Automatic annotation (TrEMBL):
Residues 67-117 form the HNH nuclease domain. It holds the Pfam family HNH_2. This is HNH nuclease domain-containing protein.
């Protein structure tokens, strides 16, 4: 029942609302961190380090980092919570399936439509039967620690110096400073069987891809190629 309901709700609102009323921008990002929401995500997704108390798991990086770097990110924004049931068909904005644990730069990239997450799996499969693959829609050379060059208004520059140093220390597989584009094609890592709602990710991805097309960051052909994935 959930799959049928999810698809009907999502596809209707994607066609009529996702690129109009609901815009993924810094101004719509969650401005407060609800400790109960973060605790729920940590428990649901198994993000607590078994060995280092001061670390949490970032599902985008697939590794444990300083807990102060990791945010509880709402997929459908907290600012839109009054519309949640009508738009996406569930009631609780703080449902763990409406969130991911991500480091601040990745959260901001998602919140501003420069990064989205595509579910890949067989038609009719459940949420846990596919992969959640990240797509980067920005400058290929943008370094994750280079916050002054972010194309969105960032609060990451306010991070304490030691956390900024930790970001500078993140490396890609070639041993070079991590770029956002290094996340492109990378799948999210999960430590439990819990998975996010696909409808929330599709909702954001439709906005992100259409906005990227409007700003000349992708081509019409690229949008056409990804479109089959932009349904729940």
């Amino acid at each position: 029942m959930e799959l049928v309901h999810e698809a009907r709700v999502t596809n209707f609102y994607l066609r009529h609302h996702a690129t109009a009323r609901y815009k993924y921008t810094t101004s719509q990002a969650t401005q407060h961190q609800d400790p109960n929401f973060k605790k729920a995500l940590i428990e649901a997704y198994g993000c607590k380090s078994p060995t280092v108390e001061s670390q949490l798991f970032c599902m985008g990086l697939g590794k444990f980092v300083s807990s102060k770097l990791v945010c509880a990110a709402h997929l459908f924004k907290y600012a839109w919570r009054m519309d949640l049931a009508r738009v996406l068909g569930f009631q609780n904005i703080n449902d763990p399936a409406n969130g991911l644990m991500l480091i601040k730069p990745i959260e901001e990239a998602f919140d501003n439509g420069y990064l989205c997450i595509i579910w890949e799996g067989a038609r009719g499969a459940g949420r846990s039967d596919g992969q959640y693959r990240m797509c980067w829609l920005g400058d290929a050379e943008l370094l994750m620690h280079d916050m002054k060059r972010y194309p969105w208004k960032s609060s990451a520059e306010k991070l304490p110096q030691e956390l900024q140093e930790e970001l500078r220390g993140l490396m890609n597989e070639d041993g070079r400073p991590l770029r956002f584009t290094d996340l492109d094609g990378k799948v999210l890592s999960f430590n439990t069987d819990a998975r996010p709602y696909r409808r929330c990710l599709v909702f954001q991805a439709r906005y992100a891809f259409n906005q990227a097309l409007a700003e000349g960051r992708i081509t019409q052909q690229q949008l056409a190629e990804i479109s089959p994935h932009l349904v729940s």
